[in-house]
Amino acid sequence: MISHGIRYGIAAAAALLLAACSGQQVQLEVKARMDGQPAPGATVVVDGKQLGVTDTSGVLAQPITRSAGAEVEVLVSRELPGHRITPWKTTFLIKLGKDGKVVDRYSVEADLRATRYFTVAVSEGGTPVTDATVRLNDKELGKTDAKGELVHEYTTLPAKGVALAVSKQGYAAWHKSASIQPGERLQVALARRAVLTVTAISDEYGVRAGVPGVAVSLDGRPLGKTDDRGIYIYTYDGAPGRKAQVALSAPGYLPADWKTAVVLEGQIGVQRVFAPTTPRPIRVAVHRFAGNTPGVDLKDVAAQAEAAMAAQLFKASVFREVPAAELEAEVKRLKVGIEKITAKGWKDTPLRRTVDMIVLGSVARDDKGVIVEAKFYVASGSVVLSQIARARDAGAINGAVREIVANVLERFPFEGTVVALEGERYRLNLGRPYRVGRGTEFSLFDAGKSEASEAPRREIGRLRVNRVEDSGAWAEVDMAPKGNRTVIAGDRVVRHLRPAGESEDSGTSVTLSTKGGLAPDVTALAGVNIYLNGDWAGTTGTDGRTEVRLRPGKTYDIVLYRHGYQQVTDRLRMEKGQGSKEFVLAVNNAVFKVDSEPSRAAVMVDGDAFGKTPLLEGKPVGLGFHTVKLTVGEDYRDWEEVMEFDKKVEDRTGERRIVLHKDYPKRGERAAQQGDANGASQAYASTHKTHPDYSEAHVRLGQIYLDDKNDYEAAVREFESVLTLPQNKDLIYKQFAVAFTNLGHAYYEKGNRLVDRDREGAAQALAKAVQTLQVAKQNTRFFPTAQHDEALHDTYYYLALAYHKLYLVTRKASLQGAADLAWREYFDFFPKRLEGNPTFEQSRAGARKYWDQIKDAS
User: Fold this and answer.
1) Distances from the Cα of 353 to the Cαs of 210, 407, 487, 735, in angstroms?
2) Contact (CB, 8 A) for 417 and 493
3) Are 482 and 460 in contact (CB under 8 A)?
4) How confident is the model at residue 449 (pLDDT cuts 50, 70, 90)?
5) Region class of 301: left (phi > 0), else alpha (psi between -120 and 50), else beta
6) Spatial distance between the Cα atoms of 355 and 378, rounded to a whole number of angstroms
7) CA atoms lying within 13 Å on the CB side of residue 461
8) What is the 3-state secondary structure (H, E, C) of 379-448?
9) Rounded distance, CA 617 to CA 182, Å?
10) Distance (Å, rounded) from C-alpha 783 to C-alpha 774?
11) How many angstroms separate the Cα of 480 from the Cα of each of 203, 459, 464, 619, 805?
12) Average pLDDT for residues 435-452, to the nearest whole number?
């Protein structure tokens, strides 16, 4: 062990020795290289002072003066256009050699790391284009910034050059193959791509709907057909500004053929209204009739009136029944009460695919017997007709309803089309089934005026029928069209009827106003139907007023009726000069008491906050049907039902309290988001058939088996467990239409897996796939909007695949033609929005090979 004194002596001797060697000159040689090659022009900095730059061989040799033991820092950097070069740095100590002298030569090698870069600057007409996608040899580099630029760094590029592509939705793609130099700035000028959107629509009873299957061509070249929404989108990648002619062909509609000129530049919209040559039956749902007299049990009377309405109304071929259960299922899915649907209309909701008209009914009792009212709503939310009738007792209900239906057929504003011209006579597609007779008047509307606007149609003239047949009628001009316009094929007609009380010589306009509530809290009351001598004369507006025409001095029997209020019946006589009369309707309420398990659930009635459970004292609710919703949060699902309030007290407390179910789909979705497929499967499987979310949960479970676990037997089992339920099999719940696509897909995968080991089993599974996918194909209009295009693609794709594989397994000649047609339809109906999506483009590329294979098959 060395003592402290000796150690201090050695240190002192070393210090003296170093001091004796201070200030020695040493030779420093720096060799700079970059990418394995000498790097000339590199700047060398020693201890913060520039020493010089490397020569053409990448070398700098210079003497420096340093003491032994000194630490020397060497920094080498280089600047080169188009390059980003990371400076190189090292340190070393000045050492003593074996002879005690300072080592006089030091050599360091600097390996500089460099990346190159180039800039892509994208503009359109001198304006930077942001978010444009830049690709290099089909690999995406990124998107342009707010300046329209993207700077790409790289180490090397192929010597033979690269392929650059720039694209952005709405612009024509830009391509260039070239050798790019470091630092190069590539100027890319994009041009607006022409995107042609064709919309074919029908306009019936105030509702616009897409017309599918309309063929679209451009300058005589077929492009495709409109989809279920009546839309076809075509992207033109040629030079912008070209003039072209778009032609539409719509068999079964007027005009059957139509053309228009366009300029192929930017966004181009072509919209055309088509009128059906043959009117289709009006889809009608009769909603549940409700009682409207407090303290009187009218359930049986209301049910009898409802059944009689359906029985009588659907005897007429012009109306087609939409089952009440189907309507209620759709209303429940939309999560809004029937009252709000009919008040606001449903033309902009998925419900328009199901029903054109909804009938709401109400029954009330007074000292003269029973009053039955039926209101007919169209999808715009308008009441197109309302009728009322009296019955002495329950035995006369059927007769009263029969009278209502007869009046409806005589007064309903049926819509049709001018389908042909013969001199000054005009053929209408409405005949005897629509109660058209000699002298029936029709308002005339310009077919072309509704092309560009949602504004209400305006009458331009009037026709009067002079000859009637079963299939149609002939009419002549009764009031000439405005502006010297002539009647043309495709013009729309609506049966014209004068309001009750109005006649050719009636002359006095009278304002009737209504208020509702309990005195003194009465306010203007809208939606009150006015009946004069049993005929509907109109409905009060938001100000509680409406105008009717009456003959002075004539006495009328008047009934004012609105469900939820006490009806008013009176005798009305207006003298000359008397311009208004006011009525007050007393409100009819029920007291709603409600409790829940668990408690503290928020209660909503028709979307309005009602309080939190328990509500043991109760709150007033108008008589009739209302949507009641309870929400407690956490892992419980909302409870929502349409309830009828027809008693003075509706008590849902105690044993009748509302029980909320656990929200297993919510749990499953949460597990799926966390990547826990087993946890999601377990949650979905927990829902039993009595659970209100059974169908939704087991569709999701089937999807996990199909997509994540490739367990096709289990997927088939889950989808079938849902689709064998009557309400889903019959598509009362429209949202499960896409489950037929998923089941067909699962059957296809099952059959495809069996092909090599069980050809008979494979054929059976593939045949089931075809059968199921055909059902899905017939109901694509019900696919959820958010996944519509993807589901549409899968329906046609797997149907074609199933036909194709079934043909290969069985070799039946008939299946070859079916497969060929299925592939053709797949390409015809390939959703435009999916073009450019790599996943679906890959499917389409494979489909072309399959189609070629089936066409070449012998």
Assistant:
1) 10, 27, 31, 12
2) yes
3) yes
4) low
5) alpha
6) 9
7) 21
8) CCCCEEEEEEEEECCHHHHHHHHHHHHHHHHHHCCCEEEEEEEECCEEEECCCHHHCCCCCCEEEEECCC
9) 82
10) 14
11) 23, 11, 11, 58, 62
12) 78
Strand-pairing partners, residue 73, are 91
Residues 6 or more apart whose CB falls under 8 angstroms from that of 703 comprise 715, 742
Strand order in the sheet with 535-539: 535-539, 529-532, 555-561, 568-573
Q: Which amino acid is at 657?
A: R
Q: Is the pLDDT of residue 450 over 50?
A: no
Transcribe 3-41 into DSSP letters: -HHHHHHHHHHHHHHHHHTTTEEEEEEEEEEETTEE-TT
pLDDT band at residue 10 under the 50/70/90 scheme: very low
Give the containing element (helix H, strand E) for 739: helix 737-754
Distance CA 629, CA 624 (A): 16
The amino acid occupying position 842 is Q
Measure the N-to-C terminal CA separation of the chain; round to a whole number of Å: 100
| Average pLDDT rounded to a whole number, residues 318-331 | 87
pTM of this prediction exceeds 0.85:
no
Q: Do 436 and 468 form a contact (C-beta atoms < 8 A)?
A: yes
Task: Give the separation between CA 231 and CA 251, rounded to whole angstroms.
Answer: 16
Local confidence band at 365 (pLDDT 50, 70, 90 cut-offs) = very high
At 730-778, the pLDDT tens digits run 776 777 889 999 999 999 999 999 988 899 999 999 999 999 999 999 8
* Residue range 494-516: mean pLDDT, rounded: 74
pLDDT digits (tens, 9 = 90+) for 537-559: 989 999 999 998 888 888 999 99
Going 420 to 422 to 428 to 431, the CA torsion angle's sign is negative
| Contact partners, residue 461, CB within 8 Å, separation at least 6 | 443, 444, 477, 478, 479, 480, 481, 482, 485, 487
| Structure tokens, 712 | 């096709």
